[in-house]
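Researcher: Quick test of sequence recovery. Tokens follow.
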């Protein structure tokens, strides 16, 4: 929940961002109407809004309020302030005011209250020492259940906001990965290791790489809590340490999992993975509807701009599964499954036959409403034509978007139907009243 200005009332508010920041000011809307938020979160946001409005300090010192809640209903609250708007001497007064406010106003099941200073992060901060949130009172962690795991969650832990959605994501990744006791899982951009830990007991070993050291520490701690001993988590930039990690995995049967930033990964990282012959399967978690087409083309292409073949076997996309991570919105995450194919087998198809195949075939997909899964046809696309592959990927993206959009349209249609139903009911009542009145007058 951000502190900012409600554009409708032009007053200070605490809620979710509805517009991009301008001049350092967030524009937020009230959280009252958000059905995907538990009521304790909404009431806490409204109480904090009253606190900000009545506080003596400039409201702009308050950056945001982070609220986490587990399945047991335990709540962790972090109050974040802007560092550049306060002197060091004012910090203690701010902390005292937060503590006093919490004791008088918070009646929800808050078990942890943190105070945090927002500052600019540098690369050294990410892989070295980070500025930790200060625990004002309560317990240091809340415990979240994820499938058969117990995870300790702190303010710095990277964990998806929707824990039930995170479970579905882990189930889909496990199903697509289909690991066994001979599989080594390489988890790139592993965060706090949720995906890696859910697969660890099914495979031979797991190696996770993550930039932020605090996440690596959380992953190691949660592995120890759950008695998992076959995981290795490494802090650092993936591009910098991937070569050394891959050299240790020579001869292994490797499945690669990656959950990269929204911008995707570099071409150099894709090239490194393609040259690593031990990687047979690849699972790419995309955090929005917009597929990173450049990454997918780099993974899948056999020829570069219609010229000579690329000197490594490609990964072709075979399945895509949308996960509704943000209910009551039109946004869902996409999980893509790639499998390694031989360049020689692909290029053995005549080019004229390939182009004709792309021009005439419409790749059909079947949607299973129970699993929200899109499965491609049994005939997989050849990657020898970049244009044909691009069309194929666009069809995947379009179908996944339509599935998410359809859910939103169904809700919109229901809301409109409900509203019109009320209007019709009211009109019918008015007609009945007029009819009864005229009947009484005639009598």
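Model:
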């Amino acid at each position: 929940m951000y502190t900012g200005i409600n554009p409708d009332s032009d007053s200070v508010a605490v809620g979710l961002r509805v517009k991009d920041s301008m001049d350092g000011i967030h524009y937020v809307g009230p959280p009252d109407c958000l059905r995907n938020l538990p009521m304790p979160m909404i009431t806490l946001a409204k109480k904090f809004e009253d606190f900000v409005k009545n506080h003596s300090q400039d409201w702009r010192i308050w950056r945001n309020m982070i609220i986490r809640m587990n399945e047991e209903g335990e709540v962790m609250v972090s109050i974040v302030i802007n560092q550049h708007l306060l002197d060091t001497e004012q910090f203690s007064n701010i902390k005292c005011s937060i503590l006093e406010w919490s004791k008088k106003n918070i009646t929800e099941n808050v078990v942890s209250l943190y105070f945090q200073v927002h500052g600019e992060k540098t690369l050294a901060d990410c892989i070295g020492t980070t500025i930790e949130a200060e625990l004002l009172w309560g317990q240091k962690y809340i415990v979240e259940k994820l499938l058969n795991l117990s995870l300790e969650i702190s303010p710095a832990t990277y964990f998806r906001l929707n824990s039930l959605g995170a479970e579905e994501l882990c189930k889909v990744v496990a199903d697509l990965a289909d690991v066994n006791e001979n599989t080594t899982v390489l988890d790139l951009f592993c965060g706090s290791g949720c995906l890696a830990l859910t697969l660890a007991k099914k495979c031979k070993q797991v190696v996770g790489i993550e930039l932020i050291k605090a996440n690596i520490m959380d992953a190691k701690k949660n592995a120890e809590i759950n008695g998992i001993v076959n995981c290795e988590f490494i802090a650092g930039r993936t591009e910098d340490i991937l070569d050394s990690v891959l050299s240790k995995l020579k001869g292994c049967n490797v499945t690669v999992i990656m959950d990269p930033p929204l911008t995707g990964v570099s071409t150099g990282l894709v090239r490194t993975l393609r040259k690593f012959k031990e990687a047979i399967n690849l699972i790419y978690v995309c955090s929005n509807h917009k597929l990173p087409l450049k990454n997918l083309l780099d993974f899948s292409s056999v020829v570069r701009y219609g010229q000579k073949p690329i000197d490594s076997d490609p990964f072709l996309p075979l399945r895509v599964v949308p996960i509704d991570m943000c209910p009551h919105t039109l946004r869902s995450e996409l999980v893509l499954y790639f499998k390694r194919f031989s360049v020689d087998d692909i290029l053995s198809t005549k080019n004229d036959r390939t182009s004709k195949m792309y021009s005439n075939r419409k790749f059909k997909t079947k949607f299973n409403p129970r699993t929200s899964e899109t499965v491609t046809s049994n005939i997989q696309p050849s990657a020898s034509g970049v244009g044909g592959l691009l069309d194929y990927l666009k069809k995947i993206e379009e179908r996944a978007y339509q599935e998410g959009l359809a859910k939103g349209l169904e809700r919109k249609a229901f809301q409109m139907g409900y509203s019109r139903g009320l209007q019709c009911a009211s009109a019918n009542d008015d007609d009945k009243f007029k009819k009864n009145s005229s009947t009484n007058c005639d009598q």
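The chain has a mean pLDDT of 76.
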